[in-house]
Specification:
Chain B: This is Amino acid ABC transporter permease. The complex is a heterodimer of chains A (about 240) and B (about 280). Chain A has about 240 residues and is of the alpha/beta class. In chain A, about 35% of the residues lie in helices and about 25% in strands. In chain A, the strands form two sheets. A six-stranded mixed β-sheet of chain A has the order 6-7-8-3-9-10, sandwiched between helices. The longest helix of chain A has 16 residues. The two termini of chain A are about 35 Å apart. With about 280 residues, chain B is an all-alpha fold. Chain B folds into two domains: about 45 residues; about 220 residues, MetI-like (MetI-like fold). Chain B contains ten helices and no strands. The two termini of chain B are about 25 Å apart. The relative contact order of chain B is 0.11. The model of chain B has no long low-confidence stretch (mean pLDDT about 90). The chains are: A alpha/beta (about 240), B mainly alpha (about 280). Chains A and B meet through strand 4 of A and helix 1 of B.
Chain lengths: ~240, ~280
């Protein structure tokens, strides 16, 4: 059974169709990269999967259950899916450690001590142990995004959604964030990431989807998409970004 | 793309959604009815209810006092509208003085700090009494002696201090990066305040601002202590004369009727701002 499957997903804001007949299947331990120019629908797709947006047609199933059904408890689904945003979205009034322990304590009922211990071990694994007591605004962009990743990982998500998490970082800091993602991918975490980092996608992805005007125009293993794309539109896009 | 039509599955889902919405509406209605029924039953079955009903909810007295209160409430409205305009301007100036950094404005800043500290410490009713009786008795040439005028001034003085702090809190809640990016564009601190910080601050503080204005609407009743014949004075006068408290209930209804439109307006403004400025609001 696949972990996540989308079929015929459609999303429109008024007249503007943002996702059009999107179908996608993801298995455990897959690393799926969504590529495509800005406005092609990558972020919206991730937001729909995390049930932050209601879809207008189609079906999203997670672990065999249709989660696009309005009767489904969205909180229960979200507690199993982690999401990291482009703008970090750390809570500025909490320290880094408190950011990381909030959801485990309040949503998953982990004790304060245990949550802190797990968060600290993740933070130190990603080189943030000495930042744990600081407030997010005191950290550099790269550190903030790493902290946001740790915050998502502290929930032990079954599926991790990463929405252009390096887009706001300078090239030097991109590396330190992607290292974590790479490590997580190697550890077998299933993830979907919208990204502009083509080299990274080529390296880490098991599966690449090229989105154009709300449609998945082409998908396949990176070796195929990056070396011999079928569609002219994909070739154009890759010529521009590579 | 225009030939898209919703699938069977989607139509089912829409039915489920509207059913869920109907269910929420039903719960809301039921809960409201139950709660209010309980309150009414609880009140009317209390042992003293007939006496309370006679003294506070007397139809005859309500009708009798209505024209008088209707006539007097305009005084409250006038006082409130005049005061509100002045308060907004003065409070904003005080708040801006307090967040300014210019060395030239140091005395203004000192005055602003002392003003808010001192004025907020004085009960509004005392300010009304002090100004309402004190200023006219100074006997200064050209100074108005009307009690209405000085009661209004007292309200302006008192509320400016509160509202100034509300504005200042709003300005300080704007992230320093907004200051940085405005100054980086070459804007002066004053321009940054005017065009970047204040507009964001004002939007944030609309709810507490409304709080203060509702409170101000009610505090116009304090003018009665210096002999302004406004609505609450009229109600008290009638009540004392006829040994009935119904006028108080009537005047309360008037005050409620004045504040509700204001509350709805600010809710609507806030909702519009959210829709415009925040993508992906849940």
């Amino acid at each position: 059974m696949s972990l996540l499957s989308l079929s015929g997903v459609r999303k429109a804001y008024g007249d503007k169709v943002v996702l059009d007949d999107v179908s996608l299947t993801i298995d455990h331990h897959d690393v799926v990269c969504l590529i495509g120019s800005s406005g092609s629908g990558k972020s919206t797709l991730l937001r729909c999967i995390d049930l932050l947006e209601d879809i207008d047609d189609g079906v999203i199933s997670f672990e065999g259950e249709e989660i696009s059904d309005p009767r489904v408890d969205a909180r229960r689904v979200r507690s199993r899916i982690g999401m990291v945003f482009q703008a970090y979205n750390l809570f500025p009034h909490l320290t880094v450690l408190e950011n990381c322990t909030l959801a485990p304590r309040k949503v998953h009922g982990v004790s304060r001590a245990e949550a802190a211990e797990r968060a600290m071990s993740l933070l130190s694994r990603f080189g943030l142990a000495d930042q744990a007591a600081k407030h997010p605004d005191r950290l550099s962009g790269g550190q903030q995004q790493r902290a946001a990743l740790v915050r998502a990982l502290c929930n032990e998500p079954t599926l991790l959604l990463l929405d252009e998490i390096t887009a706001a970082l300078d090239p030097e800091l991109v590396g330190e964030v992607l290292e974590i993602v790479r490590a997580e991918a190697a550890a077998g975490t299933t993830m979907i990431l919208a990204t502009h980092e083509m080299d990274f996608a080529r390296d880490v992805a098991t599966h690449v989807c090229f989105l154009d005007q709300g449609r998945i125009l082409e998908q396949g293993p990176p070796s195929e998409i990056f070396t011999s794309p079928r569609e002219e539109r994909t070739r154009q896009f890759l010529r521009r970004v590579l | 793309m225009s030939q898209w039509s919703p699938s069977r599955h989607e139509l089912d889902r829409r039915r489920v959604r509207s059913r869920l919405r109907a269910r929420s509406a039903a719960i809301a209605t039921l809960m409201t009815v139950v709660v209010f029924a309980l309150v009414v039953v609880g009140l009317t079955s209390s042992p003293g209810w007939p006496r309370v009903h006679e003294a506070f909810f007397n139809g005859f007295h309500a009708r009798a006092v209505l024209p008088d209160i209707w006539g007097a409430i305009w005084l409250n409205v006038k006082m409130f509208l005049i005061a509100e305009a002045f308060i907004l301007v003065i409070a904003m100036l005080i708040a801006m003085a307090r967040v300014s950094r210019s060395p030239w404005l140091t005395p203004v800043r000192l005055v602003a700090v002392v003003y808010t500290d001192v004025i907020r410490g004085i009960p509004t009713i005392l300010l009304v009494l002090l100004l309402g009786f004190g200023m006219p008795s100074l006997g200064l040439q050209g100074l108005p002696i009307s009690a209405f005028f000085w009661a209004t001034v007292a309200l302006i003085v008192s509320y400016s201090a509160y509202v100034a702090e509300v504005f200042r809190a709003g300005m300080e809640s704007v992230h320093p990066s907004q200051w940085a990016s405005a100054i980086a564009l070459g804007l002066s601190r004053g321009q940054t305040l005017r065009h970047v910080v204040v507009p964001q601050a004002v939007r944030r503080v609309v709810p507490p601002l409304l709080n203060d204005f509702v409170s101000l609407q009610k505090d116009t009743a304090l003018a009665s202590v210096v002999g302004v014949f406004e609505a609450v004075f009229v109600a008290r006068d009638y009540g004392n004369y006829n040994f009935n408290y119904t006028p108080y209930v009537v005047v309360s209804c008037f005050f409620i009727a004045m504040t509700i439109p204001l509350a709805r307006l600010t809710d609507w403004l806030a909702a519009r701002a959210r829709r415009r400025e925040f993508a992906g609001a849940l």
